[in-house]
């Protein structure tokens, strides 16, 4: 649910206000049903739950009454929740969907903060990789070693990907929150 929470909050924030169908269309256009297991029901459940928690504000926008729909805008608590979830997603290694959601919205944070968060993630990955014992020393059957080989290969690939992303960010790639007010994931610019 954390990835769904982050994505739903992120879409509402970047749209300024949105109803459930609009949130769902945005997430599906990003392919989130594949990498975050987003479904229509989970979107509407998240909207209701986040509203109950005070992270979103429900209201009837102009035209909503005609089609009996509810629109949402983000609250200050909702923005704080986005930042909390982004920081969690960019530093932990135990929730791939959360990482995917956090990478999608990372541009809504300042560049230096994202680099620092990814460096913490890299340290955790390197520590985990260093703690892996050669599989032969555990005494498991030979075919079970393949699981440990897969684990090591996955961690090594994650380490390399994280290093590459840090290098890209340090090189100035991607428009981040401290680069421009129209960075992806930020609310619409005030006119």
UniProtKB/TrEMBL annotation:
Pfam families from the UniProt entry: PadR
Domain Transcription regulator PadR N-terminal: 8-83
Gene3D superfamilies per record: Winged helix-like DNA-binding domain superfamily/Winged helix DNA-binding domain
Source taxon at top rank: Bacteria
Species in which this protein is naturally found: Nocardiopsis sinuspersici
Taxonomic lineage: Bacteria, Bacillati, Actinomycetota, Actinomycetes, Streptosporangiales
Protein name: PadR family transcriptional regulator
InterPro entries xref list: Metal_resp_DNA-bind_regulator, Tscrpt_reg_PadR_N, WH-like_DNA-bd_sf, WH_DNA-bd_sf
């Amino acid at each position: 649910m954390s990835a769904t929470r982050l994505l739903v909050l992120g879409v509402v924030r970047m749209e300024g206000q949105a109803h459930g169908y609009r949130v769902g269309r945005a997430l599906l256009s990003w392919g989130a049903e594949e990498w975050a297991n987003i479904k229509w029901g989970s979107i509407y459940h998240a909207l209701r739950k986040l509203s109950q928690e005070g992270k979103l504000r429900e209201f009837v926008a102009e035209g909503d009454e005609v089609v009996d729909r509810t629109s949402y805008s983000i609250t200050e608590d909702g923005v704080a929740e986005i930042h909390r979830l982004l920081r969690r997603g960019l530093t932990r290694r135990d929730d791939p969907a959360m990482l995917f959601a956090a990478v999608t919205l990372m541009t809504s944070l300042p560049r230096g903060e994202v680099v620092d968060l990814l460096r913490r993630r890299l340290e955790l990955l390197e520590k985990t990789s260093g703690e892996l014992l050669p599989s032969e020393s555990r005494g498991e059957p030979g075919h079970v070693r393949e699981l440990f080989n897969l684990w090591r290969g996955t961690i090594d690939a994650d380490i390399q990907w994280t290093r590459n992303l840090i290098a890209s960010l340090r090189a100035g790639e991607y428009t981040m929150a401290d680069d421009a007010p129209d960075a992806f994931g930020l609310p619409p610019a005030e006119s």
